[in-house]
Amino acid sequence: MSSDAAGGKRSSGNRDRGDAAMPTSSPFAVDGGGRAGSPNRIERMLREHSRRHLFSSPSSPDAMDTDAAEPASASAGAFAADGFHSPGNASPANMEDAGGAGAGHAARPPLAGSRSGFRRLGLRGMKQRLLVVANRLPVSANRRGEDQWSLEISAGGLVSALLGVKDVDAKWIGWAGVNVPDEVGQRALTRALAEKRCIPVFLDEEIVHQYYNGYCNNILWPLFHYLGLPQEDRLATTRNFESQFDAYKRANQMFADVVYEHYQEGDVIWCHDYHLMFLPKCLKDHDINMKVGWFLHTPFPSSEIYRTLPSRLELLRSVLCADLVGFHTYDYARHFVSACTRILGLEGTPEGVEDQGRLTRVAAFPIGIDSDRFKRALELPAVKRHINELTHRFAGRKVMLGVDRLDMIKGIPQKILAFEKFLEENPDWNDKVVLLQIAVPTRTDVPEYQKLTSQVHEIVGRINGRFGTLTAVPIHHLDRSLDFHALCALYAVTDVALVTSLRDGMNLVSYEYVACQGSKKGVLILSEFAGAAQSLGAGAILVNPWNITEVADSIRHALTMTSDEREKRHRHNYAHVTTHTAQDWAETFVCELNDTVAEAQMRTRQVPPSLPSQTAIQQYLRSKNRLLILGFNSTLTEPVESSGRRGGDQIKEMELKLHPDLKGPLKALCEDERTTVIVLSGSDRSVLDENFGEFNMWLAAEHGMFLRPTDGEWMTTMPEHLNMDWVDSVKHVFEYFTERTPRSHFEHRETSFVWNYKYADVEFGRLQARDMLQHLWTGPISNAAVDVVQGSRSVEVRSVGVTKGAAIDRILGEIVHSESMVTPIDYVLCIGHFLGKDEDIYVFFDPEYPSESKVKPDNGSASLDRRPNGRPSNGRSTPRNSQPRVQKAPAAPERSPSSSHSTTSSNHDWREGSSVLDLKGENYFSCAVGRKRSNARYLLNSSEEVVAFLRELATAAAGFQSGAADYMFMDRQ
């Protein structure tokens, strides 16, 4: 039941929690798809949904009911059905978890309901352990002595939902809501809570003040409800924000430490709400194999609102460490994905958010209520007695009802003003309608809330004075909660329920009202800004609470609605509320989390392992002739920290610079006479000249189409038949889209054009890229021999055959020819952040691939043009079997029969590069940088890891050479 009105002593601080819409898979999936296997998942979920309703037995009256408030538990405060997250008083009612007010029966532990009649796939005959981690435990603890505690159960929507999950053994980890500084008290409370299947996290008063009252309730909660951040008028305020965030991280780590103590392999860890956004990272840092889900019970704001948060980057990255991230509605999930793409620069997919091949699933899982409990309550004698009293009391008048916490987001002033306008425009209704407003006080010590209370009282007094009589007033306003029986009776006699939230995660008051309207079939007026509008919108009258006139007109429409229309609207909502329950929600989330982890494990098996640095170094030292091929961008470049600024720091990022820590290691490796280093990049020649001119190495620009030793001139290695007639027309298209896409730019290279929209608005850039491709394919390149290569935020048009893999054999041939290389290359290290089109270079060197699958230049023709400018000869073509211009080359050395590259040639053609290879599998190390979906054998996650490895390699090589020199000197002696 609603946290707003259930239970006479309930805490007034519960924040909303939402629900609505069918709890299923990703909100981003199209036609059930988005990845292989999605249709099977949906079919299975539909099948399980049917089985659940076929086999699940109704709740026993003596089992712990957890959805509504019974008098026995009113003081415990329950988990607000419509207020999962209140920044209110520190009490169990604030257990930012949804649900109704408390349970009247406490014979069983709160999370230990029976699990009969249902068998979940993969869990037959066993129970999976579930660790529920939330800010508050579902109990109210009172100390009775040094080592004595009394506990009162607070049951709510989350507890009710977990009771319904079959084949799951759930335990709850959270703060008990009291400060326990002494060890004796902590041990006693831990023992008492263990009987309730609860595990305490002990937070001291300072942490609670900074973390809970400060960062959670003063910063995150207002921001997520579109109220904005507190205004900073003093520098001390800014420092206070920083200390609150530090406390927030410390508190999350304290929760994580308790989880570590009780975690067993295979456990599912379900983290709840904005209080614990940092927790998934803490857990994954401890054990990457933990199954971690995170669910937000408030709205998630649009990226434009969220980006104002100073700690935006850390919180987003922390949440993305979870395997599954859940929200009540599609809108909230969409906002989260948008924030990740716009602020972190990650890729949004139909399944969620992808970061370097790791997918975090993001989906909508709308919560529900235990509708059966409300229906059963209507049959109780006490509730029937209340119904009769209310019917008699308001005989001859239509009853309108509002049940809310007295909170800024609930729109109570707007609701009352709309009712005043209705009375003003419809005077004949003055004595025929009454508005009953239940406003549960919350945060009564906060000046803003005190001001709101005074404002509401003033408006109510003015309206009653204007439209009331000596015997009746139009508004009955109560500043307190009602017990469960009274609230159910009030729901049952109401003709029109009015929910005017300005922003609500879900608001389950609307669900509770519908569940109690089986006979009367009343009308629901619902704010479009409540999460429930996405599921109950078809049957409710949706309104914008800020539009007072619209709400007043909707009141008139609801009061005068025909019985047929009322019944049709009610039928739709009633069917949804009674089928999409809290139990379904929890069951679906846990099942989806298990599926997500299983799918992630399958993907992980396809991800290359980390580079075995020690093995790579040992093989390097043992080899006689080594070849190091290094990419440049995102491989050897220094990272630029953008702090989440929109589009990053464009000027710094566009100016590619060699990582300063690499100059020493690179110089040492290049000076080794047994090591040949090639920097192979798609960048322009001038960029490579500027960064690597001081080293003794080979530079291959524009995907290997231009080559030079750093002490020589540029030459072209491109095939002679390369046709560049398409250049001018493609250039016009790229110029056009650069002009109409702010902060985009394009690069004109000798053999390709690249249009980059990394710094533009993400969504607009994608639309423009799609439009650009249509323009290209229908015009300039419709009949041209070109490839279109799409990066994550770029479009490149290049001639067919312009790839790093196609160029590498010609490059090797030129190096062999220039250096008169006779010793076979017996070690290859290839590291780069290459596009998928260019990963053919990994296959080229891999001895395990058959030679016929290797990449060869088109038509078998290559040009090694040593003209200083290295310009391609546009429009020229050669016969299929023509020979390149450089005819003579040293004979290839004899190869051992075991070599996988044993082809030899007396001519300096494309075969000569591979002919000098004597490479065995254990001496080949291909390594992708930051691309987990790769043909490479190994993986390095970032350029920083590349720097660390090359530094280690250079150090080992220097030590090895020094040792070898000493040995030779001693041998001469």
Quick overview of this protein structure:
The chain is an alpha/beta fold and 973 residues long.
Q: What quaternary form is this?
A: single chain
- Tally of contiguous helical segments: 29
How many strands?
Answer: 29
Strand content: 15-25%
Structural class: alpha/beta
Keywords:
973 residues; alpha/beta; nine-stranded mixed beta sheet; 38% helix; elongated; disordered N terminus
Record the SSE blueprint.
Blueprint: H1 38-55, E1 128-136, E2 139-145, E3 148-153, H2 157-163, E4 168-175, H3 183-194, E5 198-200, H4 205-224, H5 235-262, E6 268-272, H6 279-286, E7 291-295, H7 303-306, H8 312-319, E8 324-327, H9 330-343, E9 347-349, E10 352-355, E11 358-364, H10 371-377, H11 381-393, E12 398-405, H12 412-425, E13 433-440, H13 447-467, E14 475-478, H14 484-493, E15 496-499, H15 509-515, E16 523-527, H16 533-536, E17 541-543, H17 548-559, H18 563-579, H19 582-606, H20 613-622, E18 626-630, H21 650-654, H22 663-671, E19 675-680, H23 685-692, E20 698-701, E21 706-709, E22 715-716, H24 727-740, E23 745-748, E24 752-756, H25 762-778, E25 786-790, E26 794-799, H26 804-819, E27 827-832, H27 840-845, H28 911-915, E28 924-929, E29 938-940, H29 943-972
Parallel strand pairs: 1-4, 1-6, 4-5, 6-7, 7-8, 8-11, 12-13, 12-15, 13-14, 15-16, 16-17, 18-19, 18-27, 19-20, 27-28, 28-29
Antiparallel strand pairs: 2-3, 9-10, 10-11, 20-21, 21-22, 23-24, 24-26, 25-26
Helix pairs in contact: 2-19, 4-5, 5-6, 11-14, 12-13, 12-17, 15-18, 20-29, 22-29, 24-25
